[in-house]
Structures are given as structure tokens and as C-alpha cells.
Amino acid sequence: MSISDLFDSEFKARNKGHFSAIVRVAIADGDLSVEEKQFLDKLKSRLEISDEEYEEILENPTKYPINPPALYVQRLERLYDLSRMVYADQVLGPKQKEILTKFCLALGFTPGNVSYIVDKAFSLLMLNVDLDTFVYEMQHMNK
After folding, report:
1. Contact indicator for 67, 14 with CB cutoff of 8 Å
2. What is d(CA 37, CA 115) in angstroms, rounded to the nearest whole number?
3. Per-residue pLDDT tens digits for 75-100
4. How does pLDDT run across 113-140, given as a tens digit for each residue?
5. For position 142, what pLDDT does the model report?
6. N or C: which end of the chain has fewer CB within 10 A?
7. Residues 22, 117, 98, CA angle at the centre, nearest 5°?
8. pTM above 0.85, yes or no
9. How far apart are CA 98 and CA 108, in angstroms?
């Protein structure tokens, strides 16, 4: 196996793990809304998830582990995707906050800061910010 094949397979595995985490958030409330389905469809192509993988992940989203990125900015980008999924139907409840908290921990955020990170993420999403603004604001939330 060449280095590029190894890199591609690890990249695909991370994307599947990220996508399955988002699917878990989407189905946490028991159903998949139209907005959530549209978001998943868009994200599927962005993460290079095949139709077969898509169906497989929808059937069993816990099959793939969450592989946290090493870089903080990449973790924030994944948090943005997860937060958008949680807020896709513009309803926030204790279940959504609990799920996002678990994923923040799985992404490698410090347990002592997770509640602040989740609250800040939700406040930014209510303002309908884009990815760049989200990452900037999250990086500078303590200033």
C-alpha cells in the first residue's frame, strides 16, 4: 500500500466518522426533518461519502468512531457542522445540548470548557453566522 493510499483511506475514515456523528445528532430526536435531510445530502458530497456508505451510515451511525482532528481549527469546523445539524430545525432543547456536549468531548475539547463552547456555538448559530465567522468567534471567545 502506498503512502497516498494510506492517506486516502485515513481521510475517508475520518470523513465517515464525522458524517456518522452528524447523523447521530440528526436522528437523536427520533425523526429526520426535511432540513436535516437536505443538510445531510449536501454534506454527503462535501465529505465524499458514496451512496452506499450514506445508506449504511443512516442505518447504523454508530458503526464508525469519531476521529477528532489534531488541529484546533479543524475541530471547530467539525463543531460547526455538528452544531448546524443540532440547530437545523431551529429548536434547542436539553437533548440537543446534551448530544452536542458529548460530541464536543469526543472531538477533544477540554471538559471544563465544554459547556461554554456549546453555549457559544448555539448563540452563533442563532445569529446565522458562516463557517469563517464561527471559527473566528470561537477562537476569540475569551477575549
Report:
1. yes
2. 27
3. 899 899 878 877 766 666 677 788 78
4. 999 999 999 899 889 899 999 999 999 9
5. 75
6. C
7. 55
8. no
9. 16
According to the model, what pLDDT value does residue 25 have?
A: 73
Q: What string of DSSP letters covers the chain?
A: --HHHHHHHHHHHHHHHHHHHHHHHHTTTSS--HHHHHHHHHHHHHTT--HHHHHHHHH-GGGS-----SSHHHHHHHHHHHHHHHTTTS---HHHHHHHHHHHHHTT--TTTHHHHHHHHHHHHHTT--HHHHHHHHHTTT-
* 103 residue type, one letter: F
Contact (CB, 8 A) for 86 and 69: no
Residues contacting 17, CB < 8 A, separation 6+: 64, 65, 66, 67
Please state at what angle helix 94-106 crosses helix 114-126, rounded to 10 degrees.
120
Q: What angle do CA 130, 136, 137 make, to 5 degrees?
A: 85
